[in-house]
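Q: What structure does this chain adopt?
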Amino acid sequence: MHKLHFSGRVTKDAEMRYTQAGKAVTGFTVAVDDGWGENKSTIWIKCTLWEKRAEALTQYLTKGLPVSVEGRLMHEDGNPKLWGDPLCARFEVSVVDIKLMGSKKQEEDYF
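A:
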């Protein structure tokens, strides 16, 4: 099994929906900075939370919130043959664990 672990900030408020099977799924994106000065770059990582965790955490995953995410890298469309050009492949992270890293005051407000 592979794992990714990264920290960054939520780019916009998370959005929850339900699959046709009735499972809750929340989507959000995390901006992760790398480097510094002129060498600084940012990548945006699409993330998904499922079921009870999605229902419990969606309201807290708001724009600008610092988070630490651990998850599994998944093909966004589930089928790499549909990508066509491999340089245009799209991925998302299926979240296994997430820590909300706001200020102490924010953490007290969450729980």
